[in-house]
From TrEMBL:
Keyword rRNA processing attributed: no
PROSITE patterns: NAD_G3PDH
Active site: K217
GO molecular function: glycerol-3-phosphate dehydrogenase (NAD+) activity; NAD binding; protein homodimerization activity
Name of protein: Glycerol-3-phosphate dehydrogenase [NAD(+)]
Sequence ranges assigned to domain Glycerol-3-phosphate dehydrogenase NAD-dependent N-terminal in this UniProt record: 15-184
Record lineage: Eukaryota, Viridiplantae, Streptophyta, Embryophyta, Tracheophyta
Coiled coil (residue ranges): none
Family, per entry: Belongs to the NAD-dependent glycerol-3-phosphate dehydrogenase family.
Gene behind this protein: GPDH
Amino acid sequence: MGEAGHEAAVEQFRVSVVGSGNWGSVAAKLVASNTIGHPFFHDEVRMWVFEEVLPCGEKLSDAINRTNENVKYLNGVKLGKNVVADPDLENAVREANMLVFVTPHQFMEGICKRLGGKIRSDAEGISLIKGMEVKKEGPCMISKLITDMLGINCCVLMGANIANEARIAFEKFSEATIGYKHSKEVAQRWAKLFSQSYFLVSAVQDIEGVELCGTLKNVVAIAAGLVDGLDMGNNTKAAIMRIGLREMRALSKRLFSSVKDSTFFESCGVADVITTCLGGRNRRVAEAFARTGGKKSFNELEEELLQGQKLQGVSTAKEVYDVLSHRGWQGLFPLLTTVHKICIGLLPPSAIVEYSEHAPNFSLFEGSAECY
Ligand SMILES: NC(=O)C1=CN([C@@H]2O[C@H](COP(=O)(O)OP(=O)(O)OC[C@H]3O[C@@H](n4cnc5c(N)ncnc54)[C@H](O)[C@@H]3O)[C@@H](O)[C@H]2O)C=CC1
Ligand SMILES: O=C(CO)COP(=O)(O)O
């Protein structure tokens, strides 16, 4: 009780979502359905929109606020009246102490530069971004980039969550994994913000493992798409998924000795490999790439097929390759290495299943003892 006999007002947590693509819009809808009317959270969820002008001449942020739908990236799904689209990055984050980062990974460094010194000192972050940066010192996960550049704690949320397949946007059941470093209490607060009867969230103390799962599975999905484009069938695709998962685990553990095996059995691990290899954008564009025999580039196909949405797997394959080649580890990770070489045209799409011809010293399907 306060001095005057009144209860001291407890500050509500204020949430902003940095990003408004396909998954960014679903994330905003999800959290907004939980903040509304909740005593812990302020109702309004501000969503930063990278502004663009629609073919009709209207600004995207205006269209979102007028229709309550992200007409470009998640057409046909109401976001909730408490979602406010804001094209001004600084304004969008100014009042928030819970920041949800969800942009394609290649834009995050630039966004962090713009946000330096502009966010609340008590803010906490969570990254839904699947990807990494490679620095001179080695790989830098996006949550670490956020922590280093903004000086805030940052958890991650990854999982088998294809936004566009109408599973989450239309409230069909799925799961996700929060990875945290130190504070279980903060992870639980994030779980409270995201959990829904149709969206089951669990938390594990293995931030690097969770984030590397989400990041590396995009490269595996490119391999799966190539196999589809070559009409190799389900047995081959299942083999690629198994080998991919094995390489994901081996690389994650080499990069961070703290990574736990059990993380690969969470939604962020095996489940995300499966869903992305079956129905994701990386798979789809890689299939088209293989069907053109590699004649159209991934960039061209991304533009043609995704209408502004971004692939993460191709640039991640390069980033992973940089890490592997810097450490002399290519031979230990034949699938991850081959995907990059196919993406840049050094090997044909068929190399994904003919690996030993191109690299006689090791076989994709035998793998190396290191990988077990
Ligand atoms: N879409 C999905 O099903 C899922 C995506 N993710 C991850 O979420 C992250 C964000 O992906 P989505 O929301 O799907 O985005 P998206 O790929 O659908 O959309 C691209 C977004 O980038 C923005 N953009 C374009 N140029 C930009 C620039 N120069 N600076 C800043 N933003 C720019 C666009 O306005 C748009 O919001 C990625 O790391 C992705 O891997 C995670 C789970 C599911
Ligand atoms: O991360 C995803 C599903 O969990 C989405 O994968 P894509 O980007 O390949 O669609």
